[in-house]
Design goal:
CATH architecture of the largest domain: 3-Layer(aba) Sandwich
Order of helices and strands: HEHHEHEHEEEEHEEHEEEHHHEEHEEEH
Bound molecules: D-malate
Oligomer: single chain
Number of domains: 2
Structural class: alpha/beta
Number of strands: 17
CATH class of the largest domain: Alpha Beta
Helix content: 25-40%
Distance between the termini: 59 Å
Radius of gyration: 21 Å
Length: about 400
C-alpha cells in the first residue's frame, strides 16, 4: 500500500498566493468587466533590461551553432557567473566569499524550501511571524511540527515581529537550532541594522545554531547604513547560509535564476557531536537533484553585473521604489501607519481591522488586489501588504481608487 506523507494533512489551507488567486479569479469571473489592479504577489512587471536581453540572444545564437553549442553545464553554475557574483555582491562589500561557495539555482523559493533536507527532523526551528509562508510550510511537510492550533504549528518557535520591536525580532531567551531571517523583510518591508544582525550572529554561534538568511530583496536597500548581506557581520561565515535571487533584482521571476551561498567551513553536527560539512552536503544534494540553470539564463544573469546591466536594473528598482513611495504616502495620507517601502518593494499597512475582510473590501469596492497580513502569520492580523511591482499609471490609479473606496 502506498502510504502518504501525512504531514501534508497538517497544512492549514492552500498556499497563500494560490488562495488569493482563487478569490481574485472568482471575483473576475463574476465581474468580467471589472479592471482589477494587482498589488498582491510580488511579481515584476517591467520588461527585462536590454543588457540581459542582448546577452540571452547571444547565448541562444551560441546554442544554435555546433561549434559553440553546450549541453549540461556544471550543476553549481558556470564559473563566469559564480565569479562575478563573488566579486560584485560579496568581495566588493568586504565579504570573504569565494565562487566555489556559490550555488546557482532556478529560484530562492526552491532553495529555501530544499535546504531543510540537510537537517534532522528534530531541530528546534525559529520562524518569524509574519513570514514568507514557504519557510513554515516546508517544515510542516518535513514533519518538524505538530498540528496547527489557532494558526500556529506546535513545535515551531515563533519570533514575533511587531510594531513594538520595529518588526525586527531579537534572538529568543531559549536555545533554537535553525533560524529563518529575511531582510529587507517579506512581508513587512522592515530592514535590520548591523547591530541587530550582530545579535543574531552572536546568538547562533553561542548555540551552535544556523541562520538561513533570505536576502532576496537586498537590491532595494538604499540606506548606506543597512547591511546587504549577513556576511557583512563578522563571524557569519561560521553560522549562516544566504539566499539571493535575480527575480526582484533584475525582473527574472519568469526567467528563473537565483543563488545560495554555503561557506566552506560551515558545520552541522551528528548526534555524537562530530562535525559534518554543510557545503559538501549541499553540493551532494545539488548535484544529485539538479542539473543546472540554462546557459542563456546564466548569461543574462551575468549581464546584470555589467555597467549597462547595473545601470538599467538599478533604474528599474528606483522605479519600483518610487511606486512604493506613492503607495506609502497615499496610505499615510488616509491615516494608516505604514512600514517598508523605502528600502523594500513592500508596504506593510496597519489597517486596524480583520485583514482578510479589508482585502475583500479593497477587491470588491476598488478592484485592487493586496495581500492580507494574516496570510503571513497571526502577527499579520490587522495588516495588509501592498506590493510596488506594477506600472506607475496603475499604481496611481490604484491609490485613487483606494482613497475613493475608503473615504466613501
Ligand atoms: C511574494 O509576493 O511574497 C513573492 O513574490 C513570492 C515569491 O517570491 O515566491
Amino acid at each position: 500500500m502506498i502510504l502518504a506523507n501525512e504531514n501534508f494533512g497538517k497544512l492549514q489551507a492552500s498556499y497563500l498566493f494560490s488562495e488569493i488567486a482563487k478569490r481574485v479569479n472568482a471575483y473576475q469571473t463574476a465581474n468580467p468587466d471589472a479592471s482589477v489592479i494587482r498589488l498582491g504577489i510580488g511579481d515584476v512587471t517591467l520588461p527585462l533590461a536590454p543588457a540581459c536581453v542582448a546577452a540571452m540572444h547571444q547565448a541562444v545564437d551560441e546554442m544554435a551553432d555546433e561549434k559553440t553549442f553546450r549541453g549540461y553545464g556544471p550543476e553549481q553554475g558556470y564559473a563566469f557567473l559564480r565569479e562575478v557574483i563573488a566579486e560584485s555582491d560579496y568581495r566588493a562589500r568586504g565579504c570573504n566569499i569565494s565562487p566555489s561557495e556559490i550555488f546557482v539555482s532556478d529560484g530562492s523559493k526552491c532553495d529555501c524550501a530544499n535546504i531543510q533536507e540537510l537537517f534532522s527532523e528534530e531541530l528546534r526551528v525559529a520562524i518569524p511571524d509574519p513570514v514568507y509562508p514557504v519557510y513554515v510550510d516546508t517544515n510542516v511537510m518535513a514533519g518538524r511540527t505538530g498540528e496547527a492550533v489557532n494558526g500556529r504549528y506546535a513545535g515551531l518557535h515563533y519570533l514575533e515581529s511587531t510594531a513594538a520591536n520595529g518588526f525586527v525580532p531579537p534572538p529568543p531567551a531559549e536555545a533554537v537550532d535553525l533560524i529563518y531571517l529575511c531582510f529587507p523583510n517579506n512581508p513587512t518591508g522592515a530592514t535590520a541594522t548591523g547591530k541587530q544582525l550582530r545579535a543574531w550572529v552572536d546568538y547562533a554561534k553561542a548555540n551552535k545554531a544556523l541562520i538561513l538568511f533570505d536576502a532576496a530583496y537586498e537590491a532595494f536597500i538604499r540606506d548606506p547604513e543597512i547591511p546587504h548581506s549577513i556576511y557583512e557581520i563578522e563571524g557569519a561565515r561560521d553560522c549562516a547560509i544566504e539566499f539571493r535571487s535575480f527575480s526582484k533584482r533584475a525582473g527574472f521571476t519568469g526567467i528563473r535564476c537565483a543563488f545560495t551561498v554555503v561557506p566552506e567551513g560551515l558545520k552541522a553536527y551528528r548526534r555524537d557531536g562530530t562535525e559534518v560539512c554543510l557545503h559538501q552536503m549541499w553540493n551532494r544534494r545539488h548535484t544529485t537533484k539538479f542539473n543546472g540553470v540554462s546557459y542563456p539564463v546564466q548569461r543574462a544573469a551575468a549581464a546584470v553585473y555589467t555597467p549597462e546591466g547595473l545601470s538599467q536594473t538599478n533604474a528599474q528598482i528606483d522605479y519600483y521604489l518610487e511606486n512604493a513611495k506613492i503607495i506609502r504616502e497615499g496610505m499615510q495620507a488616509l491615516g494608516y501607519t505604514c512600514v517598508g517601502g523605502d528600502n523594500s518593494p513592500y508596504i506593510w499597512v496597519n489597517v486596524r481591522e480583520d485583514s482578510w475582510a479589508f482585502f475583500d473590501r479593497l477587491l470588491h469596492e476598488a478592484q485592487i488586489v493586496t495581500t492580507p497580513g494574516a496570510g503571513f502569520g497571526s502577527c499579520g492580523e490587522g495588516y495588509i501588504r501592498i506590493s510596488a511591482f506594477n506600472n506607475r499609471e496603475k499604481v496611481i490609479e490604484a491609490m485613487g481608487r483606494i482613497k475613493a473606496a475608503l473615504t466613501r
